[in-house]
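Question (not urgent): is this output format expected?
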Amino acid sequence: MIYEGIVKSISELANGISYSKSGERKEFNADAFGVIPYDIAINKVIEQAENHGLRLSLPQRDILRKSILCEMLRPALPKMKGMMQFLVAAPGNPRICR
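Got this back:
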């Protein structure tokens, strides 16, 4: 039940389709969904999944949100660790700059 609602929500949002709380269909630029911050994207997916029958209590939503974020960030952590090890070995004050 959770899987189907999440998958359908991601598919719709990736194609630029969104539903309001009242069930009204709205279309938007699908590129916008791919570049928003992770936490906002996760919230949008969960809200959209609720329109497809996903029923979670607030603690369950928080657990789902945190586990999704952890899985999204897991591949990036070794790369960040390697970058930080390089910065520590470099002369000067190590920091991450834009």
